Amino acid sequence: MIMERFLRNNRGHALTQEERKALESAVSEIKTLAPRKTIVRAREILHQSTFLMEGTMSRYIDDTNGVRQLVAIHFAGDFVDLHAYPLGILDHDVATTTEATVAIIPHAALGKIIRDLPQIAPKLWFATLIDAAIHRAWLFRLGRLDAVGRVAHFLSETNARLMSAGLSNGHRYALGLRQTDLAEICGLTTVHVNRVMRKLREDGLCEFRSSWVDIPEPARLAARGQFDPHYLYFVDERGGSQRTCPWGREPAD
Amino acid sequence: MIMERFLRNNRGHALTQEERKALESAVSEIKTLAPRKTIVRAREILHQSTFLMEGTMSRYIDDTNGVRQLVAIHFAGDFVDLHAYPLGILDHDVATTTEATVAIIPHAALGKIIRDLPQIAPKLWFATLIDAAIHRAWLFRLGRLDAVGRVAHFLSETNARLMSAGLSNGHRYALGLRQTDLAEICGLTTVHVNRVMRKLREDGLCEFRSSWVDIPEPARLAARGQFDPHYLYFVDERGGSQRTCPWGREPAD
DNA sequence: CGCTCGGTTGATGAATTTCAACAGTAGTGG
DNA sequence: CCACTACTGTTGAAATTCATCAACCGAGCG
């Protein structure tokens, strides 16, 4: 049950029962963390990674004045700092946003799983590459969208991710973020985010009240934020050639 | 010789002779590409990756009006789209910036190498995670720095990367970019980049003339851009506990 | 009740974009 | 050799977006 959602909708990279069981049995500890607690600091040497079972977590970089830029946000089913396994040290901090339930997986146990079930390695690699793809979408957002577009893009992306996790019905989802958090995600000030939210509300694109996001017409919001979910690499209904990741197979291809 | 620079300065993840030879013998083709040619489009199914031996390449996402945001820039010694191997499809385009010499490595051959030399897998994984770390630094740059800071940060980062590749002496390097490219990297307009460059010149922080970047005092430029190279994961002189990536070893740690 | 926190609003100013024009350089062909 | 073109860089002026500063509101809570 712990990692049910992990890689669930990713083309060709879903875990087998066996792989999921192996990961779950590698969990050394499950715990619930208070909201707004930093659990990993940049430059610390790490020997474990954190899988998020419930709640919301963030990864961020602070500037020299303490002004914060979020570089990622994570929801239930995300392997928050899996990249700490190959990297050993992170270049950013990791914190809870809401209260969060996490499963801790020691890197030593991860190593054992990969040795026992080598075909899991490309899937874990894949999972970290999805994070990188999301980073790129965020770069696009910050570099090329205006304030309204950035928020629209973020809320659309979040809708898509939460739908995939079974946490949004496509029109409405719970989001435990404050306007300050949106500002730190979108590279804006809190005051300006407030005005942007009003604009989105006035335009009928999105309501965000007491931790619920309502999106009457997701397509319109997506258009305003130039959002296209292809970079999330979810299985799409159209099927298409779902290339699976290679190694462990013969060099056919 | 082909991949001499690859992972050269990365802590604990340098390739062994054997691994490098294996990768180099997997090269199916070496070719020189004209400047400003797009060689990979988002959503194409890929069966090979591109290693950059000489020149400069970029990865980018265009908005619906064709305004471009670069999400990465690559120099000699970078494995430009290694992530295409686990992903199969990219979420962005890839292009040459200058004329470039590249080595093509079929994914089938990569699979074979990983099966033959499993300890290379975490190193390749690591290489793609460095790209992700750079994405995060770019997010910080776009989200939290002003125009002068963004350019200062980028030029400092590039100095650090090129030093590691042996292509900068720490004060001066060749950079085949136009002001338009800087704009697409830093999320600015070309006109404003022009003014920023003048400002950097006036402040004695940086000269950028006819493809050469001169940085009299790298520390001052870095300070202006809040640049700290730790996210590049280069070996540092201070040594420190150079954690190497695990699997293939016993679960000791 | 008084406090804190997150959200809201207004007024002002700074940073950046936009639009428009022009300069310098290199290449190209008559 | 010169005219012409193309490309990159440069500058000015006006418009716009967003940040900053400051105040206030409302809900929840001790």
Largest sheet of chain A: 4 strands, antiparallel
Number of discrete helical segments of chain A:
8
Based on CA inertia axes, which overall geometry of chain A fits? globular
| Average pLDDT reading of chain A | 93
What is the count of distinct domains of chain A? 2
> Topology as H/E string of chain A?
HEEEEEHEEHHHEHHEEH
What is the name of the CATH class of the largest domain in chain A? Mainly Beta
Say what the CATH topology of the largest domain in chain A is.
Answer: Jelly Rolls
CATH architecture of the largest domain in chain A: Sandwich
Quaternary state reads homodimer
- Tell me the total number of β-strands of chain A: 10
Strand order of the largest sheet of chain A: 2-6-4-5
Radius of gyration of chain A: 18 Å
- The percent of residues in helical segments of chain A reads 25-40%
CATH superfamily of the largest domain in chain A: Jelly Rolls
The fraction of residues assigned to DSSP E strands of chain A is 15-25%
Can you tell me the residue ranges of chain A where pLDDT is under 50 for at least 5 consecutive residues?
A: none
Class of secondary structure makeup of chain A? alpha+beta
Protein name (chains A, B): Helix-turn-helix domain-containing protein
Domain HTH crp-type (chains A, B): 145-219
GO molecular function (chains A, B): DNA binding
Keywords (chains A, B): DNA-binding, Transcription, Transcription regulation
